[in-house]
């Protein structure tokens, strides 16, 4: 239940600074932040919502500003990194979410909407109901949209296809996969709050999804199960480090959707994935972000594929 009054702690930053700022707020307040992005200006606002501040405002401001200065010294482009701490009434918080969270249509296959939306699905569309919580995003980030589009495109009616979501967050991809007919559907996340929120969303949508807490870096190198399609919306360093482990989770000929990668990081990541016998089939880019769909080679012999490319 949302308390009558909340504290909002937010930092305005850049796309490049988003990851560093989000990590800072998560470590400071021990909860995953929510992120708003302006498609027009490129500005990013990273926020946490608290029932009470964990200390005096002045001390919190000083500590956060010092931490931001340390990250600037690492030559991270944080922009102005404007810090704001303010009380927020419950109704203002709810209306803020309603303004930012509008329905998403993925072609003729999926409609993702909050419970307060009156939008009706078109004939043949599957509906995913997703209400944001205090600390979880809405799925509007362009890299998440790419994952959803690939889920819909790769689904073959009448064929049994398994799906794994690595870094499930709110559970949006796993729920969408189940709605589209993937089975079985598995997902995991290292954040216990994400797992809790994801399970609530799974229950609300009445789908069969197995979601658990797990750390990708601690999974065995040889898995017990392999999947037809995997979505990994992860930071570039983690994708590169665990490339072979992720490859082993795919069936021969299976597809990996790698998302959440900055354009400047993508070429090096592609080389690393290629060395792990994952060949690039399609890329999609918008502003600073780039995502890709890759295939595990049937023969396990490296080979390049020019594939398709799209830029928004």
Tell me what the structure shows.
The protein has about 300 residues and is an alpha/beta fold. It has 2 domains: about 5-100, Alpha-Beta Plaits, CATH 3.30.70.120; about 145-310, Rossmann fold (3-Layer(aba) Sandwich). About 30% of the residues lie in helices and about 30% in strands. It has 9 helices and 15 strands. The chain has helices at about 20-30, 55-70, 90-100, 140-155, 170-180, 190-205, 235-240, 245-250, 265-275; strands spanning about 5-15, 35, 45-50, 80-90, 105, 110-115, 125-130, 165, 185-190, 210-215, 225-235, 250-260, 280-285, 290-295, 310. The strands form 3 sheets. The protein has an 8-stranded mixed sheet with strand order 10-9-8-11-12-14-13-15, with helices on both faces. The protein has a 4-stranded antiparallel sheet with strand order 2-3-1-4. A 3-stranded mixed sheet has the order 5-6-7. Strand 5 and strand 6 form a beta hairpin. Helix 1 (about 20-30) packs antiparallel against helix 2 and helix 4 (about 140-155) runs parallel beside helix 5. The chain is globular, with a radius of gyration of 20 Å. The chain starts with a strand and ends with a strand.
């Amino acid at each position: 239940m949302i308390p009558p009054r909340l504290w909002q702690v937010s930092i305005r930053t850049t796309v490049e600074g988003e990851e560093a700022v989000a990590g800072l707020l998560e470590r400071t307040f021990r909860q995953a932040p929510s992120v708003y992005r302006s498609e027009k200006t490129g500005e990013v606002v990273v926020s946490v919502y608290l029932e009470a501040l964990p200390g005096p405002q002045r001390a919190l401001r000083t500590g956060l500003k010092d931490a931001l200065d340390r990250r600037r010294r690492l030559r991270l482009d944080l922009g102005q990194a404007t810090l704001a701490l303010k009380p927020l009434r419950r109704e203002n918080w709810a209306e803020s979410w309603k303004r930012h969270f509008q329905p998403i249509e993925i072609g003729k296959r999926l409609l993702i909407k909050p419970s307060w939306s009156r939008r009706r699905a078109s004939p043949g569309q599957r509906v995913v109901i997703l209400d944001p919580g205090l600390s979880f995003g809405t799925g509007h980030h362009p890299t998440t949209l790419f994952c959803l589009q690939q889920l819909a495109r790769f689904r073959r009616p009448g064929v049994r296809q398994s799906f794994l979501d690595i870094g499930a967050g709110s559970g949006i991809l796993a729920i969408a996969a189940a709605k589209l007919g993937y089975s079985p559907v598995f997902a995991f996340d290292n954040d216990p709050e994400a797992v809790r929120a994801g399970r609530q969303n799974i229950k609300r949508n009445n789908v069969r999804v197995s979601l658990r807490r797990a750390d990708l870096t601690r999974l065995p190198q040889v898995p017990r199960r392999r999947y037809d399609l995997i979505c990994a919306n992860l930071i570039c360093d983690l994708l590169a480090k665990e490339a072979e482990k992720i490859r082993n989770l795919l069936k021969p000929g299976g597809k990996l959707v790698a998302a959440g990668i900055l354009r400047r990081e993508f070429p090096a990541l592609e080389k690393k994935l290629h060395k792990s016998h994952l060949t690039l089939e399609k890329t999609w880019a918008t502003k600073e972000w780039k995502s890709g769909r890759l295939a595990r080679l049937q023969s396990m012999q490296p080979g390049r594929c020019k594939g398709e490319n799209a830029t928004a």
